[in-house]
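Dear colleagues,

As part of the handover before I leave the project, I'm documenting each prediction I ran so the next person doesn't have to rerun anything. This entry is a single chain, and its sequence is reproduced below.
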Amino acid sequence: MRERATPPAYLRCDLRTFPLASLGSQFDVILVDPPWDEYARRAAALGGDASCESWTWEEICALKVEDLADTPCFLFLWCGSLEGVNHGRSCLAKWGFRRVEDICWLKTNLKGGLGSGVVDGEDTVLVPCKEHCLMGMRGSVRRSSDGHLLHANVDTDVIVAEEPPFGGSAKPEELYHLIEHFAQGRRRVELFGCDHNIRPGWLTLGSALSSSNFEARAYAEQFGHAQEWVAPNGNPQPGAPWLLGSTPEIEELRPKSPLRGGGHGGNSTSTWGAPRGGRGGRGGAQQPPADDRPEDG
């Protein structure tokens, strides 16, 4: 995986006005960490930077994230612990993604002491000590036949990690590890990134970056000609230049989906992202579908 990761790419830009389609590429993974108003309120309550950038959920929803998405595509959206969870679902639907998972970050404060569990006037019953990252999918994949696109049943949907001090909005690095082990596409982009988010294998966009090195043509050339590698079922074939690739040993060790009716095997018909009663396919999630979890058979 490290050998095939692209060099870190980053672009300082104002996402309120920057046309995302001008990047000239479509992506297999999109990570969005918006400056929800919840974060600004929390920072002010904890004595942090009360002037930090804050977007309304309508402004976040208005982003043209769909312009960045290939089919299939996985999207990860941090949405805080309060009203952002429901607003995040609306954003996924507007961008043409089906919600398939909710990744929960359980915050510890062993090092930082009093942290973001403090609530200032929020309408909550329990003190929030977690944040949610909604995972959405565009298109559909089969765990039994599309192992070149994802590693199913490998990682967890719970992250236990230290929270940032004084109401900061930095997220745990563990999410990158989860994404990079799960999604096999090499074309990954993060929106609202900062300098500490820059990492190999990712294109990072945001106004908080201190500099830029992104050049659209050079970036796209690292992945060959995508459309030449599309299979008849709408998914890229194994060996596509923008996929990490696999080995016979990895395929032998890969967890298999349970068969309908009991037992285990590699010929499950379980499909992620397909509406119930159908198999989906390229462009199958172009219209915002109903919110649901992936079908596990």
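The beta strands are 9-12, 27-32, 69-78, 98-108, 130-138, 141-142, 158-162, 188-191, 202-206, 271-272. The domain at 9-272 is CATH 3.40.50.150 (Rossmann fold).

All the best with the project,
I.
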